[in-house]
Structure formats: structure tokens, C-alpha cells
Model the fold of this input.
Amino acid sequence: MITLKSRREIDEMKKAGDILVETHKEIAKMIKPGVTSWDIEVFTDEFLRSKGATPEQKGFEGYEYATCASINDEICHGFPRKTPLKNGDIITVDMVVNYHGALADSAWTYAVGDVTDEVKHLMDVTRKSLYLGIEQAQVGNRIGDIGHAIQTYVENENLSVVREFIGHGIGPTLHEKPEVPHYGAPGKGPRLKEGMVITIEPMVNIGGWKAKMDDNGWTARTVDGSLSAQYEHTIAITKNGPEILTYQGENE
Done:
């Protein structure tokens, strides 16, 4: 079932989004060679709690951490670890914030030190594809319009869109209907209605789109070892157009 949120519920989710944005901005200041994803994990857990929020994914289906920290060829759900980040790495930090029962979800890819032009291209295309998808999140459009916009742009840039992991509805629980693929045909899928809240979170690879799972049962990485980036926002569908509940403002 797809739940429709009231204006009050969306406003509460925006408060969770504001805390999430503040957290990402602090994480951005931390990213440099020598920092570990465990440092980011500890900071995030403590920072959220200092704001009266909690990390929603901690304990979700047995997941143990406040963040997912996916490095280089890891597509998503990387475990935080104590291995120092190196110059030229990329890391995607994904988190879900619960603020008095309202949820917000956002992932961001960060460059560690100096990265190659190829990696900059990957990051730029992935982030732009997110906003092209958001442009399609209009009342009356269909889910397929979002995925088609993302896939068309990404593939025209000679990159690939991950198929196995997709966006989703959110609130009051973490993963709800509808599913939001980042590929597909326009005019297909559920119709977008005012009050729906979804995540759009394209994962884009330099090489092929296929993923494989690590032995931990959570972490997905590219089959060919190519790098992967991801950007994600939580979006409310409103009569005035898409409202980004996790917008980072001028820093984007």
C-alpha cells in the first residue's frame, strides 16, 4: 500500500531532513586521507543523538550501524571500518534519520583528496542524474518517468545504472511502496500523487551495472571492480512540484 502524507507529516519529515543535512555538512568537513569510515560512524551516531534524533537503520533487519559507508567499488551497504581512507578514494555515506518518528533518508558521495577526471565525471553525472529524476517527480507523472530520465542521461554519458538496488517510499517505516527504479520506460509504473514521499537514489558505475554481494550478506559491489557513486534525496510529491526534504542548499 502507498501511504499519502499530510502537510503536517511532511513538515515533520523535513525536520528530520534538516538534521540529516546538518550531519552531512559536518561529515564533508571530515573527509580527507587518513580518516576512517569508523570515525564517520561514531561521529554520526553521537551527533544525531545530540540533536534528539536516532539513526533509523541501526538495528534495521539486523544491520548494526548508524551509517552505510561504501568505498570505491562498493555500491551500497558498506560496513564502517577502521581502515584509513586514501587519497583518490571515494566514499558514499548513507543514513536514515528518525526525529520523533519522522524519517528522512539521504546518501552522498565524497571525494577523498584528489581524484581523477574519470572519477569527477562519475560523481558529476550521478549527482546530475538525481536532479533529472527529481524533475520528473510531478503529480500525474509515473514512476517510470523518473527512472527513464536517469537512465537515459547516465547511459549517454557512457556510465551504467545499477538495477538491483532502487529507491522507495518512506514513512512511517523505512522501506515502503512504491519501488522507485532508476531505469525503465516513461509512462510506466504507479502514478505519482500529492502526499507521496519517496527516495530517489541513483547508483552509477564506471563499468557494468551488475552487482555481487560480499560474504557479510549486506555489502554490494561492482562485479567488474569499477567505481560506483550514489546520491540520494527524500522527495515529497506536492501540487507545487517536488519538494526535496534533504536539500543541502548552496553546498550542492
